[in-house]
TrEMBL record:
It comes from the Bacteria. Residues 172-199 are annotated as: Disordered. This is DUF177 domain-containing protein. InterPro entries: YceD (IPR003772). Residues 187-199 have a biased composition (Basic and acidic residues).
Length: 199
């Protein structure tokens, strides 16, 4: 993968690096919720592969359920499934891997974010499980394509290897002449002997 750390789903980042954009207008989400399924086309898959430095993105699809909550918030759940082409780090052979990542996020109007973030901070000080901070609804839209892209990137194995691939370690037999004291012994052997004392 690239040196850039993938953003957590929903976090802001450079929009030029968001090739898969599918906007949902929150004003058009009915009270009973909205189900959306999206599939990345070839152009989007090529762009995602380039950003993530993958050999290829063979397929990518996602399904989302967006459910209205109180105070203009929305609960977004879903799953991203993809098949990607990578290179085995051991054999350098081309391999394919499957990605299956869940998504479970709360989106809120931007003005609510500071207040809800404070509630998360308070929860961190307690023994209860800390909830994720909400994501902002940007200009009345939720970009489920970006959520799918982020989840896909997070599911990539940075060290892919074939199931039967193992690192071969070369075992060297230690040379007895390579002992730390071998050089000292050699010097002593070459050292001229002094005259022996007379008896």
């Amino acid at each position: 993968m690239s040196g850039d750390t993938p953003a957590r789903p929903g976090t802001s980042r450079d929009t030029s690096r968001d090739p898969w954009r599918v906007l949902v207008n929150v004003a058009q989400i009915p009270e009973t919720g909205l189900h959306r399924e999206i599939v990345a086309d070839e152009t989007v898959r090529k762009a995602m592969a380039e950003i993530a430095e993958l050999r290829e993105v063979i397929s990518a699809r996602a399904a989302f359920d967006l459910m209205p909550k109180r105070d203009g918030r929305f609960h977004v759940t879903g799953r991203v499934q993809a098949r990607i082409g990578q290179t085995c780090v051991v054999t350098l052979d081309p391999i394919e891997n499957d990605i299956d990542e869940p998504i479970d996020l709360i989106f809120a109007p931007p003005e609510q974010i500071p207040q809800m973030a404070d509630l998360v901070d308070d929860a961190e000080d307690s023994d209860e499980e800390t909830p994720d901070p909400p994501e902002p609804i940007v200009n009345g839209f939720i970009d489920i394509g970006r959520l799918a892209t982020d989840a896909l990137f997070l599911g990539i194995d940075p060290y892919p290897r074939k199931p039967d691939a193992v690192f071969e370690q070369t075992v060297e037999v230690p040379d007895p002449e390579d002992h730390p004291f071998a050089a000292l012994k050699a010097l002593q052997d070459r050292k001229p002997k002094g005259p022996k004392g007379d008896n």
